[in-house]
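Worked example

This section walks through a single chain of length 689. The input is the sequence exactly as stored; nothing has been trimmed or padded.
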Amino acid sequence: MTASASSSDTRSRRIAGSAALLGALAGLLLTAIFANYERNSVFDLWQRLAPREITADNVAIVIIDDPSLDARGTWPWPRNYVAELIEIIARDRPRAIGMDMIFAERDARDPELFASLYPDLDEAMAARLRQLPGMDEKLSEAIAVAPVVLGRAGVDEDGTEHQLMTEPVIAGDLPAGVPRMPQILSSIAELDDVALSRGLINGPPDPDGIIRRVPLTIVAGGQAMPGFAVDLARISAGESELVWTDGMLMLGDRALPADETANLAFRFGNLPPQAVYSAAEVFAGEVSGVFADRVVIVGLTATGSSDVVSTPLHTEIFGVHVQAQAVDAMLEGAWLSRPAWAPWAELAASLVLVFVILLAAATKRTWFFYPALVLALAMPLLSFVAFDRANLLLDPVRPLIIAGFAGIAVWIAFFVLGRAEKLRLARQLVDQRVAAAEQEGEMKAARRIQLSMVPDKDKLAALDPRVELGAVLEPARTVGGDYYDALMLDDDRLLFLVGDVTGKGVAAALFMALTKALSKISLSRTDRDLGETVAALNRELMEEADEALGLTMLVGVLDCTTGEVSMVNAGHENPILLDAAGTVRIVPMKGGPPFCVIDFPYQSEPLALEPGETLLLLSDGATEAQNEAQELFETSGVIDALKGSPGRPATDVATGLARSVRDFEGDTEPSDDLTILAIRYVGASAGGA
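Given that input, the structure is written out below as tokens.
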């Protein structure tokens, strides 16, 4: 039987371990498929929980908004208006003026184009119109004398394929995944050629439509060009070149970390009001001296503008705000980086959690799950702290998903195995009861053996004056396996137990006798923990028991001096406590399986008895007693029968409860032994009486 139990236990552990590994692999596959989605969801949450505080020291934006259009007319404006805006801003000597727009065509209000619209004009009038300075010429002059950075865009078509002026030259080895576009959309040459620099303003959002990064470099028309924001940051920092090295773009002494597509992730925030100005205010002279030593970005935000994007903080925000925040982040070092070691650290965390789950499955010790739970709860906190304090992107979700799938798989495996074990035990119990009908002839001999093995009331009364013991053992017609015992281990400690052999006939009675003998030998040893002693007794019984026999037992040791009790429950009914006031309650016990099932590490459980309290140990012959209507007496019937019995001697409590059970059964023949052991603690003071 020991080998069978051990084999079954090994098999269940192997199944649980295999389930944990399969669950972990399923979680790993799931996170591989949805890695970007779950990772971005976490990092977006951190952005919302800890938005960056942005000052107005580095960047300002001038927006062409609805009031601006009310003041100067609909967009696009005549180029001389744009030139005027640049000239006003330039008076404050900003570090750079970024035009977040592209002037791809000549101004429709250019005098030469205007003259061509009226072919009936006389030649002299047309000539005079053509001699007027063009709008693009005015804008070109303004751009030439101001530190203007114009926008460009990489496009698949409708751009230019020829070489354009490119400053600064981008050196070093570009990331392998840098975006490449065949053509460049730029402002007309009259404007583009005279600008201080040019940057690419197009950076595609992530697949979910959210802007989280800005491009550092894009190859367009065969030329490596800087992103709009990084070029403005370069000019503001006074740097003349950009160099790629080891996957990072060097901006002076700043190493900007890039992903495989040469994009920079950064922390978002909200621009303060003193960093945002309407073009209408600028034209009206309402702002002065505010742009000195700052990067100024001019962008369109009027109603109907197409430059509306989503970020982790805002479902709708204008692109010029994103460019301004990116510039400020580069100057302040507020970029986000995902270190090369991050995936390995996340994998290591996953392995640790899965290992703990495997350990719990292998040992069947659920407390192993507690450190795993603590680690799982700590991961999101550590990830947030790393984000908030060090701008690091560490994914806590992937390890949790992998470990979570492993844990769920183990739970399912244990649930299925537990159900199978319960069905097996139920079938075994049914088989035992069927076999009992064939053993009826042995019952008389079994009952004689059974009754001869238990102490009578005189022996119980002589054990110790500090306790009263009362017992009832009434064998049923077809069962011969219940027994009880009580003895003094030393001057102060009382050993007591109630057992129920699930077998039948003489074999069950003999096994009960063997159990009583082994119990008295094993449990009389005073140098071992009660739980360890019971576990050792279980192992001895497993070597002797037949597969048709089983045993439940409740065993305890009472310290007659203090009233402290240690008990071990091996698949037996929980004890019942009757206090001095007559209140009855069940003493809950974790316990363990019946004897002769598996090798189990039984644990002793404490209880303290006060003087006048009575502890009752029952067999299931009380709770499972049936009447003619096949109703069960149950634990509730036991409790009702005991109520209102404070201060009664232990013998009266035991016999009174037995009488209540038999009265409930009426003429129904008992189907099981009825065993009751009542232990009333009188108190240490009675020892000297």
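What to look for: The chain is about 40% helix and 20% strand.
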